[in-house]
Every structure is written in structure tokens, then in C-alpha cells.
Amino acid sequence: MAVNKVKVSAPGKIILSGEHAVVYGYPEILSAINRRLSVEIEETVLGLDIQPIEGKSLVEYAVEMIKARLKISGHKNLKIRINSQISIGGGLGSSAAFAVAITAAFFEFLKLPRSLKKINEIAYEIEKKQHGTPSGGDNTVSTYGGFLLYRKETETFKVFSPLKTKVFPSIYLMYSGKPEESTGEMIKTVKDFILRSPKEAEKIFKETEKITRNFSRFLSGEELNFGGLITRNERLLEQLGVVSVKTKRLIQKIESTGGSAKISGAGGVKGDSGIILAYHQDPKVLIKLANEEKIDMFKVKLGERGVRNEKN
Ligand code: PMV
So which residues are the catalytic ones? Predict the structure, then answer.
């Protein structure tokens, strides 16, 4: 019979500007979105029972990591249920939302005082298992929610501040399809580019930083051309070599209707490039295009809440 049961959820994210550049110490802007992943933990008599079974090894790893970091033993008989509205491997931060939600669920289950800072730190350790050298932006925005300006100075020193947002742009997400490459492989692609063309890479990152700062000014209410910033950001990601030919074609089609679009996240070059962030003053045009191209598209709410308890 269940004696202790908790349910915690954490949001997915989009990157408005600065992906990849953030790995090299430049700032990025992320936003939590209204797609969430929840983790339920309850006591059972059955040993460690994990559902769904596909993610079992990552869940086991996360549980061991959390127990080690919280210096606890025991708790062998747990039923862990994961439910997600966030598609996997498309750049919406599903692995970070998982890492944050499972860590926070343990805090709740063990009745430890909730510390967002500690939850974020442990979630980052779990993220490293998945992505090698992530910047930590995904888990940070999933923990704290809202819009964040984030910068990784060093592996152990990361700074971020919540952006006070006056404008919530109306953004649609199109799913170009799951990239063939992992985030780690795309980070490697950029690293190779930097080794081949260090000056060009630096120019791209510096230009990206300017755009990131303009996005931040736009969100705080300054009158700037939001669509124009998206397009310029996309061009720089294309120069960096993280957008596939197929995705570039789709983005050109969006631009030819007067809209703008960019990849959001690590991208992909061999086939698809994951999630695309699309903006148009007349969203009906985007809906028509997505129908014609048979692409999944949904409106997304930005600036959503970070990790939170859910009622069982
Ligand atoms: O895993 P994704 O698709 O959300 O990409 C993460 C963004 C990168 O800047 C490429 C990597 C990182 O850790 O910030």
C-alpha cells in the first residue's frame, strides 16, 4: 500500500538566441514553455519499478546520482512514473526537464527543504551523462522558469538572470523532424568549425551576442524588429553549419511569405534540424504553410513556470 506519493513537473524550453555560442562563454536567452514532463514517485514493495521501460537505464542512473549527491541510502522499493508532453531529441529540452523533475521529486519524496540551486546543480550532473559538455542552460531554465539570460563562464561558474519581460511574442513551433545527430555530435561539428576557421567563428559568435542583447531589449519593451532578429540569428546558425539543407529550404519558404524562422537548439545537418521557431505577423499564413508541408506545428506559450509540485 502506498504510504508516500509525490508528483513534480518541469517545463521544456526553447532557445531564443545564442545556442552553440553559449558553449564558448557567450550569452543565450532561453524561455520555459507550456509543455511539461512529470515524475511521480511512490513507495511500493516491488523493488525499483520504472515506467515507461524505454528510459530505464537513464532513470536508474539519475536515481543513483541523486542518492549519492544527497548522501542517502536505502529507498530500494520505489515506483517511478514518467509522463511527458515534450518530444524527445528535437531541442525542446526533454532530458533537462526529466533531470530537473526527478531531482525535485526526490527532494519532495524525502521531505527535504526545496532548494532550486541544489536541484539545478544535481540536474546538471544528470544532463552531463546525456550530453557530455552541456552549457547547463536547459536545466537552469527548466528549474527556474520564465525567460533567462544565461552565460556559462566556466564549468563551475554560471551566471543567469531572469528577464523582466513586457512583451510575449506570439511564436509557433514547427517540428522539422528528429535530427540524425545528437546534441553532443552537433557541439563537435561546431568545435571542428572553430578549429578550421577560428576568426570566422569568433565573428559569428560576436554577432550572435549582439543579436542576443537585442532580443533582451525587445523583450523588455524596446521597439525592435523581432522577425528581423530571428532571421539574422538563423543566418548565423547556418554559417556555423548546424542547419540542414532540408531545413534551410523550409525556412526560406517561411521567409518568402513574409515570416521568419530559426532552429532552436543544437540543430542537425544530415537530415532534419529539430524544432523550428516560427514567427509571422499573420499566423494564418504559417498555419497554411504547415498544412501544405505536412509539418506538425503548435503555438507555444513562453515564460512559463519552472519546476513545481503537482497534485496527485
Ligand atoms: O540539446 P538542445 O538541442 O537543446 O541544444 C542545446 C544547445 C547547445 O547550445 C547546442 C548546447 C548547450 O548545452 O547549450
Answer: 138
CA 19 – ligand 1 centroid, Å: 6
Sequence-distant (6+) residues with CB within 8 A of 59 are: 50, 80, 82, 102
Q: Which atom of ligand 1 is nearest to the CA of 18?
A: 9
What CATH number was assigned to the domain covering residues 171-300?
A: 3.30.70.890
* Ligand 1 atom 13: residue of nearest CA: 134
Q: Whose CA is nearest to atom 14 of ligand 1?
A: 135
Q: What is the position in ligand 1's atom list of the atom closest to the CA of 152?
A: 14
Which CA distances in Å does 98 have to 39, 124, 176, 227, 250? 8, 11, 23, 31, 30
Write out residues with Cβ below 6 Å of ligand 1.
19-20, 22-23, 91, 93, 134-135, 137-138, 183, 187, 265-266
Give tens-digit pLDDT for 16-60: 999 999 999 999 999 999 999 999 999 888 778 888 877 788 899
Classify strands 49-51 and 28-43 as parallel, antiparallel or unpaired: unpaired
What's the whole-model pTM score?
0.93
List where CATH 3.30.70.890 sits in the chain. Answer: 171-300
Percent of the chain with pLDDT over 90: 80
Cα 11 from chain centroid (whole Å): 9
Looking at the CA of residue 137, tell me the nearest atom of ligand 1.
Answer: 14
273 — phi, psi (to 5°)? -125, 20
Fold of the domain built from segment(s) 5-165+303-309: Ribosomal Protein S5; domain 2 (3.30.230)
* C-alpha 139 to ligand 1 mean position (Å): 11
Location of each CATH 3.30.230.10 domain in the chain: 5-165+303-309
Which residues, in sequence order, are bridge partners of residue 263? 276
- pLDDT band of residue 2 (cuts 50, 70, 90) is very low
Q: What is the pLDDT of residues 117-139, one digit of tens each?
A: 999 999 999 998 877 778 999 99
